[in-house]
Amino acid sequence: RRIAKQYTVENLELTEKAGALCSDGYTIWNYRRELIEELIIKPEGKPKPEKLTFIQLELKNLLKLLMKNPKSYTLWFHRGWCIGQGLLLENDMGKKDSDVLTNEIELCKKMLVQDERNFHCWNYKSSLLSVELENVKKKCEEKKEASEDIIKSIYLREYDYTTTLISKNFSNYSAWFYRAKILPHLFPDPVYLINRETLKKELQTLKQAFYTEPKDQSCWNHHRWLISLLLPVQIVSVQINVGSVSDPFSGRLSFVAYIGLSQKVKNLGFARFLINNAKTDRISVLPVEQGVHSDRWKIVCNGLKVTELNEFSFEILKDAKATTIEGKQHTRPILLQWKKTENILKLQTPAKSLDTSLDTFLKGILDQEIAAFQELIDVEDGLVYAIERLCELYSLKREYFGNPYYGFKAPYLHASELDIKYTQLQDYKKSCLLYTSPSPRDATLSRMPSSA
User: Fold this and answer.
1) 313 near 337, Cβ under 8 Å?
2) What distance in Å separates the CA atoms of residue 216 and residue 57, rounded to the nearest whole number?
3) N or C, which end of the chain is more exposed by having fewer CB within 10 Å?
4) What digits encode the pLDDT tens for the residues 406-449?
């Protein structure tokens, strides 16, 4: 019937009955959406309030099915489509506030009370937020009004909601993840993704979570994300390969530079390459690894003669931003220079020209968290996540403040002390892995097999 495009009221009723019997039958719901469009939405002679009433009735019927099958991809997708149609109708009718959106936001809250781990509902809630923000922007543009305050209030509402859920249960992974999407919009910062005060506040909240639920992975993942926002993109390795003349008649020279970064980036648009102290379009920049983001890049100088290439430089400007997996990340400024006569790489930017306030803040946070995790481990043995995170923090401190390209010296780094500490933690971590922690859903049971 769908192939024959039989759009009739009878088929509309049949799809409703069939959907109730098989809620995951995506073909049924695809056909039903076509029927609704042809029979309800598109006809111009049908009054808009009547169309909206049908959409609202459709949402009520879907709710009954969702109560029976709350993790159905098909039902949530169809519900999202209905919301879109309802919003269009409300806007055409000139409604100031959206009843459809308000009801859906409340519905999500009720559904998450029943099952806070229902990621279908969390994804739906996230899509609702995007729809709500777009709707606000559109209405404000039509009225020529500012939308910033309204948008901020929406983000604040969602932030408070995650705070409430997390305070009830630190193990709510979805709430932490949703919170991470809200924070950059509510507390932006020109350097970091979120401002310093909010970072400190989040770390303090996490400290409470670590002492309450130290064996749950949710809070540790959020901590890893927060610390990653503080880490600048910096050079960790540079290799210059100058090959022999490939063509003795033309004198073409093979020149390739391999740049290693501390984080994976989408491109090297934040860097500037110079040949003989001048910009050129004779350079190709390619990722060494396949994928959207890479931490190793290959710079090839195309078609240069031996006599043409005397000097190559790689520069990251002070206020440059790199596009990482987490978003826009700040970078450490540097100028590295290679000269053909010397055939060595030289650091031209002295360490004192770096923004020391950023490095001081990063070092302070790393030292603070290292001390907190060391204290937590001293209180209770066998906390694998805490030991693993402590190893990572020591590794980060060694990586970022022991980088020879930036000329760091004491008191930023005591290499031998850090190496010893890191090795001890790795050994301790291996011994702790012999113990299997209890399940967070049942603290009285262990995941260790009965035969062990």
Assistant:
1) yes
2) 41
3) C
4) 766 544 445 555 666 667 677 766 666 554 444 444 444 333 33
